[in-house]
Amino acid sequence: MAEDGHKVSLNVYDLSQGLARQLSTTFLGKAIEGVWHTGIVVYGTEYYFGGGIQQTPAGRTPFGTPIRVVDLGISHVPKDVFEIYLQEISPRYTEQTYSLLTHNCNNFSNEVAQFLVSATIPDYILNLPNEVLNSPMGAVFLPMIQQLETTLRAGAVPQAPQFKPATTAPATQKASSLSNKEVDGKSRSEAEAATAGEQKTSTAETVPVAVKPTGGQEKPSGNGIAGDSLGDARSKVQDEIGREFAAIMATGTLRASEAAALATRRVMQRYDMNVAQS
Questions:
Q1: Is residue 234 located within the same domain as residue 271?
Q2: Nearest to 57 by CA among 41, 70, 69
């Protein structure tokens, strides 16, 4: 059970596409392996900082294929709690606050990794700006770096969709989408009947995203009994974390990030205690 949850990994990209490794000794006086960009992958989505906090399906960012993937651990933070956390920190991660040297994508990845799994990203990524500036030619390249930062802020690099919390579309939305052409070809009573029938089907088939089991749909087991015990257990833990988080937030004493961390710790400690007693 302790190993169940959401896998968290770090996608690492070399923005120089190998040129840093080839030319850094000549131009900087020391070897630099790459110009790093990173994104946090969790819940099947990649989150990163560019012109604000951005999200895209894992591995489909404008930066191509990651040159390596770092396993950061397993998180028990539910997705909805994570999205509240992102909303809370978003004012600190905007196009205006971006700094290539001091407040960049790697600083964002490091902060998010600490929230999700209490781990940091590798030092060689975080320390790259200091390595460049402290190199023999660092002062010469500083104006070029500042110009690149201005270019990035201006949106010259393709940007993925901005982060937005997931929402569930009303079940009646599909029912109201009959085209004008369809309505014109039917009498008012026929159109209303078709709409009512389609609405009934949509209501029966639509399942709100928030209540879908994390482990996926239940499938019959080999003995014909439906259910996924690991998926059910994982869903139960995440539900408990969500309830604990809501209770803490209701007190109004903690920020969302602090409440999420405390809720996760309480539930996991509670589970560990039960295991010890069983």
A1: yes
A2: 41
105 belongs to the catalytic site: yes
Q: Within this chain, do residues 54 and 94 fall inside the same structural domain, yes or no?
A: yes
In the annotation, is 37 catalytic? yes
- Pair (145, 261) in one structural domain: no
Please provide the size of the chain in residues: 278
* Residue 46 domain-assigned (yes or no): yes
Angle of helix 79-89 relative to helix 256-277, nearest 10 degrees, comes to 150
Cβ 64 vs Cβ 243: under 8 Å: no
Single-letter amino acid code for the residue at 7: K
Q: Would you say 104 and 98 are in contact if contact means Cβ atoms under 8 Å apart? A: yes
Tell me the two tokens of residue 248: 């803490």
What ranges in the chain are assigned the alpha helix state H? 19-28, 79-89, 105-117, 123-126, 128-133, 138-153, 180-184, 188-205, 229-251, 256-277
Q: Are the C-beta atoms of residues 213 and 78 closer than 8 Å to each other?
A: no
- Of residues 6, 37, 76, 103, which has the active-site annotation? 37
**Range of the structural domain that residue 40 is part of:** 6-153
pTM here is: 0.59
Q: What is the CA radius of gyration of the chain?
A: 24
Residue 91 has pLDDT above 80, yes or no: yes
The C-alpha atoms of residue 172 and residue 111 are separated, in whole angstroms, by 40
Which residue's entry shows tokens 């997931």? 166
Write down the catalytic residue from 6, 76, 103, 105: 105
Could you read off the pLDDT of 180-211 as tens digits, one per residue? 444 455 445 554 555 555 544 444 343 333 33
Is 229 within the bounds of a domain?
Answer: yes
